[in-house]
Write a structure and sequence with these properties.
By secondary structure, this protein is α/β, with parallel strands linked by helices. It is 47% helix and 15% strand. An 8-stranded parallel sheet has the order 1-2-3-4-5-6-7-8, sandwiched between helices. The protein is globular and about 50 Å long.
């Protein structure tokens, strides 16, 4: 499972920062964030609300474009070790320049340079999805959307919504999504994790997205499952994350296999891997043990994931050849 070529579509860049990397930056800047780590040096949180606070505290040490250059290399090294050949990562101008377009461009240049370096040296291709933060509010989401529209193109390929699903409604972010759509960006949104199946319906209706981040609680609404299958809506499923945060007690209780069986297009991702002690290789291995999925199943899902990727056709064709290997 470790050596199978993989495609990951749901990865938060700051959330993928190794704890040691964050702790090192904090020490160099005399910042005391020791409270976010446990005795073993791992991220420490009790529930989703605490997770968000730790995530933002860890992100606060990333203060320059060079920090993000180093972060991208560290994250992609870990992904490449799991044989990930293509990855889409969520990026937020909220953390990269305070939603100022000029500053965002500087951060993005550093990120892209690191991605190009990783592709040359590690053989992994990265693309970016600009993401607004739900609990920061619709006003800031508009600023984020302007940053996304200004840099839309061959590398910034999508726009999304992340954060606390209990804050605001998808329709409150319609302006931001319309702005991104008009700039040619493809759309995804987190839903159906904490908000229940109704949040998936709202994201589809009000934001007109083609992918849903998580989306697994759609399983609670059989009619919605049928609709997802019929419309070809893709779910960016993060099984290890869902179990670690207590959404499901064990992986065997997770609905990924049932969603797949019922014709929903599922993909596999890690979300925020060091927080949940996972990697793409571990996700594959755990799913193999839980559902007896074989190599053919994982290859099908990888190809399905690539078909759902937001990259251009030439990039997709190049990655498709690697999946055949």
């Amino acid at each position: 499972m470790r050596g199978l070529p993989k495609v990951e579509l749901h990865l938060h860049l700051e959330g993928a920062a190794p704890p040691a990397f964050v702790a090192g930056l904090a020490k160099a800047r005399n910042l005391d964030i020791s409270g976010i780590f446990d005795a073993q040096g791992n991220y420490r949180f009790r529930d989703f609300a605490a997770f968000l606070k730790v995530y933002e505290a860890a992100s606060s040490v990333l203060r320059t474009p060079q920090d993000y250059h180093r972060l991208v290399l560290a994250v992609l090294e870990q992904s490449a070790a799991s044989a990930v050949v293509y990855c889409e990562t969520f990026l937020s101008p909220d953390f990269c320049g305070g939603r100022d377009v000029g500053a965002w461009r500087e951060y993005l240049q550093a990120i892209r340079e690191a991605a190009d370096e990783a592709e040359r040296e590690m053989g992994i291709t990265l693309r970016g999805i600009v993401t607004c933060i739900r609990h920061f509010g619709p006003g800031k989401a508009r600023e984020t959307a302007r940053c996304a529209a200004d840099t839309a193109g061959d590398w910034i390929v999508g726009f999304g919504l992340a954060g606390d699903e209990t804050v605001a409604e998808p329709k409150d972010f319609r302006w931001a999504f319309d702005c991104a759509r008009e700039a040619g960006l493809r759309l995804t949104a987190h839903a159906g994790e904490w908000g229940g199946p109704q949040s998936v319906r709202a994201a589809l209706r009000d934001l007109e997205v083609e992918r849903i981040g998580h989306g697994v609680r759609a399983i609670e609404d059989p009619a919605l499952v049928d609709e997802l299958a019929e419309k070809g809506i893709v779910l960016e499923v993060c099984p290890g994350s869902n179990v670690a945060l207590g959404l499901y007690p064990t992986l065997r209780d997770h609905p990924i296999a049932e969603l797949d069986r019922r014709g929903v297009k599922i993909t596999i991702s890690t979300d925020d891997p060091p927080f949940f002690h996972t990697t793409m290789a571990r996700e594959y291995e755990a799913l193999h043990r839980a559902f007896d999925w074989d190599e053919a199943q994982f290859r099908r899902i990888a190809r399905q994931s690539l078909d759902a990727a937001f990259c251009d056709a030439d990039t997709g064709a190049r990655i498709a050849k690697r999946l055949e290997g």
